[in-house]
Specification:
about 170 residues, 2 domains, two-stranded antiparallel ribbon, two-stranded antiparallel sheet, 6 helices, about 5% strand, globular
Length: about 170
C-alpha cells in the first residue's frame, strides 16, 4: 500500500522503483550542490563578495559565478539606489555606508576577472561594462588600508579588450 510517500512491501514493483529512483535523484542532487562547495554563509553582500574573491584566487570559476550572481540577485536594487544617490565617489569616511553598491560593483569586477581568466573575453567585457555603466561609483576596501575604484580598473580592461579585438 502506498501512503504519504512511503512504499510498503505490497506496493506494485513499478511504484517502488519510482520511489527509489526519486530518492536516488534527490540524494544525487543534494550531493552535487555539496560537491560544488557552494556555501552562501549568512547571505550578506560582504560575505558573498568575500567568498567570490576567495573562489577567484583558487580558480574555482563555477563558485565565483555562484557567489557573484547571488550577490547581484539579492542586492542590485539597493546598489542601484545607492549609485543614483551619488554624483561622485563617496568620501573614504562615508564609503562603507554604500555597502550594497560597493559589494555588487566589486562582484561584477570579480565576475569579469573570472570570465577573462577563462578566455571568455566578450562575457568579461560585458561584466566590466555593466560595472562602469551602472555601478561606477563603487569602491572596494583593500586589506592594505585604502579604497580602490573597480570601475576605473574595469574601464582600463575594456580598452584593452577593444585594442585586442582590433588586432584580431
Amino acid at each position: 500500500m502506498y501512503f504519504l510517500g512511503s512504499v510498503s512491501e505490497h506496493a506494485p514493483r513499478r511504484q517502488r522503483q519510482r520511489v527509489a529512483s526519486l530518492l536516488l535523484f534527490t540524494l544525487a542532487w543534494a550531493a552535487l550542490g555539496s560537491a560544488r562547495g557552494q556555501d552562501f554563509g549568512d547571505h550578506t553582500s560582504a560575505t558573498l563578495a568575500g567568498k567570490a574573491w576567495q573562489a577567484l584566487g583558487e580558480g574555482k570559476h563555477d563558485l565565483v559565478a555562484a557567489y557573484t550572481d547571488k550577490c547581484r540577485e539579492l542586492y542590485k536594487g539597493e546598489a542601484a539606489k545607492q549609485q543614483a544617490s551619488l554624483t561622485g565617489f563617496a568620501p573614504a569616511d562615508q564609503a562603507h555606508s554604500y555597502w550594497a553598491l560597493n559589494d555588487v560593483g566589486t562582484c561584477l569586477f570579480i565576475a569579469g576577472e573570472s570570465l577573462a581568466q577563462q578566455g571568455k573575453s566578450k562575457e568579461a567585457a560585458s561584466a566590466f561594462k555593466k560595472l562602469v555603466d551602472d555601478f561606477g561609483y563603487c569602491q572596494c576596501w583593500d586589506t592594505k588600508g585604502w579604497f580602490w575604484k573597480p570601475a576605473e580598473t574595469a574601464a582600463g580592461k575594456l580598452k584593452q579588450f577593444e585594442f585586442d579585438a582590433k588586432l584580431d
